[in-house]
Design brief:
By secondary structure, this protein is mostly helical. Helix content is about 75%, strand content about 0%.
Length: about 100
């Protein structure tokens, strides 16, 4: 009887040990630094960053186009006039000025 008890106890010990190892790996599979939830968060951050990048690329393209219009080769006089007026505060006598409080 004592032998049967020891046999079952040793089997129970191995089963408990294997369950502990399995639960350890499952926990880190989901919640570890490189686990499932960490990967999901990184993918979300990647999507947000890609959206910000596309917005910045659009803004950069717009600014690059405006700069190209101010170069000597293809100078846009209306844009130059707009920039001079905005920067230096020049107005002409027939301009209408709206003041904000």
């Amino acid at each position: 009887m004592r032998r049967a008890f020891r046999y079952h106890l040793s089997r129970l010990w191995w089963t408990a040990f294997l369950l502990f190892i399995l639960s350890y790996f499952l926990y880190y599979f989901f919640f570890g630094a490189h686990g499932y939830y960490a990967k999901r968060d990184l993918e979300h951050q990647l999507a947000v960053t890609q959206q910000q990048l596309s917005k910045l690329k659009t803004k950069y393209d717009d600014l690059a186009h405006r700069v190209s219009l101010l170069k000597n080769e293809n100078l846009d006089r209306d844009l130059l006039d707009e920039r001079v007026r905005a920067r230096l505060g020049y107005v002409e006598k027939d301009d209408i000025i709206l003041l904000d409080e």
